[in-house]
Design goal:
five-stranded mixed beta sheet, alpha/beta, 39% helix, globular, Nucleotidyltransferase, domain 5
Length: 347
């Protein structure tokens, strides 16, 4: 039995988890910061890093307590050290390095994006390689060719907004609040995709993504084309001019356009690469339409698609500990002078 303590602090969730043999989750503690950032309509990096400082030790302690073990029972400490907000990452890395030094345990650094693709393992899935990895989250939209669990080639990624970021901005445009993913999904369930919005496609053969134009098209659709008045840019309408049904229809239209863009990229990757399955992860995998479309894709291409359980879609430390176990068993160790990086394999 190998127990890995995972630590995650790449953005605005402070998380710690104890995982046995990469699959059996004994604890998965996630401290959300939504209440701290909601008034700003997005994550404020300085607030996020300060909150991580306050929460990291209590979260680790809760994780150890819930797993019903002692710290000395841990075989190694895994930490997500890339990519992400550098101030946030540094808090988790400092905590992991301190624990590794004081306990004389191995330290293993993990790529946060690749770790999202370990999440289906936590639900009992068996992934065959090579596989197509699909990461769709608040900060990343990436298509990765997985040669094994930690060796990847980036096939395509977003060139501007990530999908989750686009959902947040769409929710703001529609006056729904933040975080936007679940709010758009809920509103879309009461609407229909009656408005025409673009399915942006980047130039060239790579299945890259672009969501900024889709966001702008929604803004102009809801508020009209802007014009200059008294030296300022103004819109002829506000979201308050819309009926609830119109807001739901716009939400549904945006959701269909965003999901179509994601699915077009996945289909392109499947048609140009030989893979044995598709494995997906990230917060946007909680979206009901995307999950439904992926299941339809599996049937159409006669290929197995592995999706994470909802609790492992959001940023969490169980996926960090899981991938950390894989690296640990393959002899990977990091020195205590390792640091954090805002860039990763698919950044």
């Amino acid at each position: 039995m190998t127990l890995i303590l995972g630590i995650e602090s790449s953005c605005d969730e402070t998380a710690a988890s104890v995982v046995e043999n990469g699959r059996i989750v004994h604890s998965n503690i996630v401290a959300s910061q939504d209440a701290l950032h909601i008034e700003y309509g997005g994550v404020v990096p300085e607030i996020a890093s300060r909150a991580h400082l306050e929460r990291i030790l209590p979260v680790v302690s809760q994780s150890i307590e819930k797993a019903n073990i002692d710290l000395k029972d841990i075989d190694a400490i895994a930490v997500g050290n890339r990519p992400g907000l550098i101030g946030s990452l540094l808090v988790g890395v400092a905590a992991a390095k301190t624990l590794a030094w004081s306990l004389e345990k191995p330290l293993i650094t993990v790529d946060h994006v690749i770790a999202h693709l370990w999440a289906p393992f936590l639900s009992g899935c068996e992934v065959e390689y090579p596989a197509l990895g699909v990461v769709v989250s608040g900060g990343h939209t990436s298509l990765l060719l997985l040669h094994d669990a930690n060796t990847v080639t980036c096939l395509g990624k977003t060139i501007d907004d990530a999908a989750g970021e686009a959902f947040d901005k769409a929710a703001s445009i529609l006056g729904l609040g933040w975080p936007g993913g679940a709010l758009i999904d809920k509103a879309a369930a009461s609407g229909s995709p009656v408005y025409r919005l673009p399915r942006p496609k980047t130039k060239g053969d790579r299945p890259d993504f672009s969501f900024s134009g889709l966001k702008t098209a929604l803004l102009y659709g809801v508020r009209g084309n802007p014009f200059r008045k008294d030296g300022k840019i103004v819109f002829p309408k506000t979201v308050s001019d819309l009926e609830t049904k119109d807001i739901c229809n716009w939400a549904a239209s945006f959701q269909h356009a965003a999901v179509d863009s994601i699915m077009n990229g996945i289909q392109h990757a499947l048609e140009h690469n030989v893979v044995r399955c598709v494995v997906a992860g990230g917060g946007v995998l909680a979206n009901s339409l995307l999950r439904k479309q992926l299941e339809t894709l599996a049937s159409r291409y006669n290929i197995q698609i592995h999706l994470p359980d909802f609790e492992y879609c959001v940023d969490n430390a169980a996926m960090i500990a899981g991938l950390g176990y894989h690296l640990f068993k393959n002899g990977h160790r990091d020195q205590l002078n390792v640091t954090a990086s805002p860039k990763g394999i698919a950044s």
